[in-house]
Design a protein that fits this description.
alpha/beta, Rossmann fold, 2 domains, four-stranded parallel sheet, 8 helices
């Protein structure tokens, strides 16, 4: 049997913490009999190196990043925790899976009350990373979303890279958008979700949250690692 370590960023937000716990509970329900434990790369404990060190003593381990793109946390923090041990593997992050776009569409439909209007424009609002592979992941996610909704999709970032979300919102208006909706490309409430909410968009969708499709992606990443 292989243990699944669900490794998220970590947050100070109590609501964000509960959301991630709910996601992990959904994962447990999908793979009964598999040990599923949490770990974090920042803010919260236990840290991923400690969890991997402990769990590998009893079982093979797959660390699945509950993150939406590659970046420093996947390439350095998680990779460093995994590297010393035989029988420990690292799964892919979640964001490029087409099911993530389906959840984004669902959150957007709620934000617009199931009614798209002429002149609508969506800004996919991502956390941001200077890692080119992370930019590629977000670009893929935006393309998946654009295939599912009837309005233009561009990208804005909360940190590390341009355009910032507020600038992407302004650019959309300059190009003629009459209503700009920020699609929160974040897993749970917390710091980055707050930045999206303050971006100046007319509407902001909720974070992806504890959706069964998120759990399905995590299980797929676990099984394919």
């Amino acid at each position: 049997m292989t243990t699944l370590v669900a490794c998220s960023h970590g947050t100070d937000s109590p609501t964000g913490r509960r959301t991630v716990e709910d996601i992990v509970d959904l994962v447990r329900a999908r793979i009964p009999g598999t040990r599923v434990v949490q770990a974090f790369v920042d803010v919260q404990e236990p840290a991923v190196p400690e969890v991997v060190e402990q769990e590998h003593l009893d079982d093979d381990v797959v660390v699945v990043p509950l993150l939406l793109s590659v970046g420093f946390h996947t390439a350095v923090d998680i990779a460093r925790a995994v590297r010393p041990y035989d029988g420990v593997r690292q799964g892919e992050p979640l964001g490029t899976h087409p099911l993530i776009a389906e959840v984004l569409r669902a959150r957007l439909r709620t934000a617009v009350h199931d009614r798209w209007l002429p002149g609508d424009h969506v800004v996919l609002a991502a956390a941001g990373s200077s890692n080119p592979a992370a930019v590629a992941d977000v670009t893929t996610a935006a393309a998946h979303l654009a295939d599912l909704i009837p309005v233009p999709v561009t990208i804005g970032y909360a940190s590390a890279i341009e355009p910032r979300i507020a600038d992407a919102v302004s650019f959309a208006r300059e190009r003629g958008a009459s209503r700009v909706i920020a699609a929160s490309h974040v897993l749970a409430p917390g710091y980055f979700a707050g930045l999206v909410e303050r971006s100046g968009a007319d509407l902001v969708s909720a974070p992806l949250g504890a959706d069964p499709r998120i759990a399905e992606v995590i299980v797929e990443r676990f099984r394919s690692a």
